[in-house]
Amino acid sequence: MQPFRKHTGLVAPLDKVNVDTDQIIPKQFLKRIERTGFGEFLFYDWRFSGDGKKIPDFVLHAPRYAKASILVAGKNFGCGSSREHAVWALADYGFRVVIASSFADIFANNSLKNGLLTVRLSEEQVAGITRCSKEIENYQLTVDLETLRVEDRRGFAGLFAMDEFSRHCLLNGLDDIGLTLQHEADIVAYEAKHPVRVEMKTILAG
């Protein structure tokens, strides 16, 4: 998992509340077995009509947001089903941060395990960021996980909270596998001495 420390990026506004995971990545695209390749289907039903043509007024089709890496959205982002594909789609599209006043718990947990930072700010702060991203060309934010701070060049600054364990994992790029592999030497040593392992070798050899 790619470590997250400090990121500066263009902000795209998704001015909607209760964005669920089926809207983030519709169910018909869940057949892929890889974690990559989902970005092109992100918000598919909002981006494309039934015949596959672009819906021109959807925010991510606007040229000014073509390189956005920070998404700001309404409250309860990521509700609905527990599909991890929603996080994969956002990350594969190019987003490193999602800002909202609240997130669904499972979505936030899936994001943590995939290096996508979810930042909770107040509804007033989110509304201000959304307004700036609509009104100001090339509006950017800097999100610093080391200081737990979000700021822009116009004087806005906001602080967000994160438990220390989750912060440690993101700062160091540690998913569940990475955390386990930190103890690889101990695991190997234990397995080499484990009597069940020796017995299984004997059974398989016999």
List keywords for this structure.
206 residues, Aconitase, domain 4, 2 domains, 7-stranded mixed beta sheet, 9 helices, 36% helix
Summarize the structure in short.
Helices cover 36% and strands 16% of the residues.
Structure description:
The chain has 2 domains: 169 residues, Alpha-Beta Barrel (Aconitase, domain 4), CATH 3.20.19; 31 residues, no CATH class. The protein has 9 helices and 7 strands, in the order βααβαβαβαβββαααα. Strands 4-3-2-1-5-6-7 form a 7-stranded mixed β-sheet. It is 36% helix and 16% strand. A hairpin with a 5-residue loop joins strand 6 and strand 7. The model has no long low-confidence stretch (mean pLDDT 90). The protein is of the alpha/beta class and 206 residues long.
The CATH class of the largest domain turns out to be Alpha Beta
Largest sheet: 7 strands, mixed
**Order of strands in the sheet with the most strands?**
4-3-2-1-5-6-7
**Approximate strand percentage:** 15-25%
Name the structural class.
Answer: alpha/beta
CATH T-level fold name of the largest domain: Aconitase, domain 4
Shape estimate: globular
Radius of gyration: 20 Å
List the helices and strands and how they pair.
Layout lengths: L5 E9 L6 H4 L19 H4 L22 E4 L11 H9 L3 E4 L4 H8 L4 E4 L2 H13 L4 E5 L4 E3 L5 E3 L4 H9 L3 H6 L2 H10 L1 H11 L1
Parallel strand pairs: 1-2, 2-3, 3-4
Antiparallel strand pairs: 1-5, 5-6, 6-7
